[in-house]
Amino acid sequence: MGLRLPGASSWQVEDSVAELEALATTAGAEVLGKLIQARGRIVAASYIGSGKVEQLLSLATEKKANLVIFDDDLSPAQVRNLESKLKLPVIDRSALILDIFALRARTKEAKAQVSLAQMKYLLPRLAGRWTHLERQEGAIGTRGPGETQLETDRRQVQKRISDLEKTLERIDREREEQRKRRRKVFTVALIGYTNAGKSTLLNLLSKSEVLCEDRLFATLDATTRKIVLDKKTEVLLTDTVGFIKKLPLHLVASFRSTLREILEADLLLHLVDSSHREVENHLRVADETLLSLDAENRPQILVFNKVDLLPDATHITKLRHQHPGSLFISCTEGIGIKSLLQTLREIAENQEQETTIFLGREQERFYPLIDRHTKILDTVSNDGGLLLRVKGRPEWINKLRKMVSS
């Protein structure tokens, strides 16, 4: 169920409802019908008008539906009023997204993050909701903590939130140690709207087998793979959870530790589905999400994927004019991949630092280590040892300097 308010075009609302349908399908629902109402304002009590509520009831009865999903967030009172009139469970987009995340969570961290987000979502909706959720155990919108954490006391729920936050803080400290080790290598984070092809690109560049599906939020856990650009240039490429419009703020907050991969990356590779008619809206959503993470100023390359699905070259020309410096690829057809790799290589090399290191005779044992982690540009040998001109990551240059000076 969608609502078109003044200022929104009909096709934008239709696309949003179509995306809601895709989300529902991803969650395992069978979509039986869709409705959109155009109104001048939101109805405080029921979100949509009374006539549209009656129409929705008639459609649900005719189709024998057992769940109604709204495309926007509903207040607890609106949910209760709608359920009273429709005699059916009602959930909103946020609850649906949270359900998908609960369905997709695989690691301990992801499960904790989803549980935390769901608890924060459910906390203001406790009154009169737990018995309803118990009846709907396992249904869409109630997975994760909705199945197993039906606390009947607000204090217990708040304690659960506190426990989850402590768990995530501990996991984040562990991840921080991993990130410290990675800083010796150029790191790239794949970002973008959900289903833009990030996992497909990660698999293509790293020759790995990360889960890829033509569904929203196929990737939930951050996955990192090493890519060898040449003999001495490696990058770590991390696939991150996709962005989506109307993403619940508490979900972004709960996933902050995973999304910190974006903040720690040397470069953001922003992948966009060029064939989608809401390209600019997807870019706006990504920009807003980066802003909420304080990552809007991170170095970024805009990469338009799925160019093989564009009807003609004029679309690429238009996008190139609107977004100068962007790249155009097709992961499935291999178009533009060499150019993308060359761009990554140039950026990674520009991040490197050149210096000279002198190895005395007793320090020549460090030569293999230097050769492994830097590019040796020149070598001069004399009776006192070796004078090397090298180029590499600042972290490694500093480490090698300390080793040979100690």
Describe this structure in words.
The chain has 406 residues and is an alpha/beta fold. The protein has four domains: 2-88; 103-166, no CATH class; 185-350, 3-Layer(aba) Sandwich (Rossmann fold); 353-405. Helices cover 46% and strands 18% of the residues. The termini are far apart. Residues 130-137 and 146-151 have low confidence and may be disordered.
SSE layout and pairing:
Elements: E1 2-4, H1 10-26, E2 36-38, H2 50-63, E3 68-70, H3 76-86, E4 90-92, H4 93-104, H5 108-122, H6 130-135, H7 145-148, H8 154-182, E5 186-192, H9 198-206, E6 223-230, E7 233-239, H10 249-254, H11 256-264, E8 267-273, H12 279-292, E9 300-305, H13 314-322, E10 327-328, H14 337-350, E11 353-360, H15 367-373, E12 375-382, E13 385-392, H16 394-405
Parallel strand pairs: 1-2, 3-4, 5-7, 5-8, 8-9, 9-10
Antiparallel strand pairs: 6-7, 11-13, 12-13
Helix pairs in contact: 1-4, 4-5, 5-8, 8-11
Overall average pLDDT:
83
Widest sheet: strand order?
A: 6-7-5-8-9-10
The profile of the biggest β sheet is:
6 strands, mixed
Please trace the helix and strand order, writing H or E for each element: EHEHEHEHHHHHEHEEHHEHEHEHEHEEH
Work out the helicity level. Answer: 40-55%
Q: What percentage of the residues does DSSP assign to strands (E)?
A: 15-25%
Q: What is the terminal separation in angstroms? A: 69 Å
CATH architect. name of the largest domain: 3-Layer(aba) Sandwich
Looking at CATH, the homologous superfamily of the largest domain is: P-loop containing nucleotide triphosphate hydrolases
Q: Regarding CATH, which class of the largest domain?
A: Alpha Beta
User: Count of DSSP E strands?
Assistant: 13
The name CATH uses for the topology of the largest domain is: Rossmann fold
Number of domains: 4
Q: Given the structure, what is the number of helices?
A: 16
Poorly predicted runs of 5 or more residues: 130-137, 146-151
What shape does the CA trace take?
A: elongated
Structural class: alpha/beta
* Radius of gyration of CA atoms, rounded to a whole number: 26 Å
